[in-house]
UniProtKB/TrEMBL annotation:
Lineage: Bacteria, Bacillati, Actinomycetota, Actinomycetes, Kitasatosporales
Name used for this protein in its record: Crossover junction endodeoxyribonuclease RuvC
GO molecular function, one term: crossover junction DNA endonuclease activity
Region (Disordered): 165-205
Biological source species: Streptomyces sulfonofaciens
Positions annotated to bind Mg(2+) 1: 7, 141
Length: 205
C-alpha cells in the first residue's frame, strides 16, 4: 500500500509518501513541503498548492491519500487557510479517483506514539524511528505528513473490517413493521361441504 499523507497549510503544506502494510516494516518514499508566499493572493497560493500536490501524485502514484481533518482553532484566519488547503488536497485526489481518508490529529498521534496527546517532538521522533531515517524530517509539517500516511496504513485494515461489519448489519436488519403484510390464507372447507350461500344485497327502505 502506498499512501500520500498531506498535512494541510496555506504557508507550508507538508507532503509525505510511505509504502507498507499493517504489521510490517514501513518505507519512506519521499517527503517535502509545498510552500507559498504569505504576501500572495489566496487564489494564487491555493493554485500553487494544487500544482505542488499534483506533482507529488504524478511522481509517486499513491493508492490512497490521507489528509488531516481540520478542527476549529482560536485563530479563525489560520483555520480557514488550513481548511482551504485541505480542500485542494481532497480535490486533487478525487480528480484522479483516489480514495481519501481524513484522520484527526489525535488519531494520528495515538497511532504513531500510542498517545493522542503527544506533542510534535514526540511525533517527529517516532516517525524517524518507525521509518528508520538517518535524521528527523524537517520542518514539523513534513513529519506530520509522514505520520498521517503511517496512521492510514495501520488503521486501514481495522476501518475496512468495521465497514464490512456495518454492511452486514444493514443487510441483516429486519424489515420495518408494516412494511409487508402477507395475504390472509384461503379457508379450506371439508370435502363434501356445500359452499356458504351468498348474501343477497339489502334494499334501501
Amino acid at each position: 500500500m502506498r499512501v500520500l499523507g498531506v498535512d494541510p497549510g496555506l504557508t507550508r503544506c507538508g507532503v509525505g509518501v510511505v509504502d507498507g502494510v499493517a504489521g510490517r516494516r514501513l518505507t519512506m518514499v519521499g517527503v517535502g513541503v509545498v510552500r507559498t508566499p504569505a504576501d500572495a493572493e489566496t487564489g494564487h497560493r491555493l493554485l500553487a498548492i494544487e500544482q505542488g500536490i499534483e506533482q507529488w501524485l504524478d511522481e509517486h502514484r499513491p493508492e490512497f491519500v490521507a489528509v488531516e481533518r481540520v478542527f476549529s482553532q482560536h485563530n479563525v484566519r489560520t483555520v480557514m487557510g488550513t481548511a482551504q488547503a485541505s480542500a485542494v488536497a481532497v480535490l486533487c485526489a478525487a480528480r484522479r479517483g483516489l480514495p481519501v481518508a481524513l484522520h484527526t490529529p489525535s488519531e494520528v498521534k495515538a497511532a504513531v506514539t500510542g498517545s493522542g496527546r503527544a506533542d510534535k517532538a514526540q511525533v517527529t521522533a517516532m516517525v524517524t524511528r518507525l521509518l528508520r531515517l538517518a535524521a528527523p524530517p524537517r520542518p514539523a509539517d513534513a513529519a506530520d505528513a509522514l505520520a498521517l500516511a503511517i496512521c492510514h496504513i495501520w488503521r486501514a485494515p481495522a476501518v475496512h473490517r468495521l465497514q464490512q461489519a456495518h454492511a452486514r448489519a444493514r443487510s441483516a436488519r429486519p424489515a420495518a413493521p408494516g412494511a409487508h403484510i402477507p395475504a390472509a390464507p384461503a379457508v379450506r372447507r371439508p370435502a363434501g361441504e356445500p359452499p356458504a350461500p351468498a348474501s343477497s344485497p339489502r334494499k334501501a327502505p
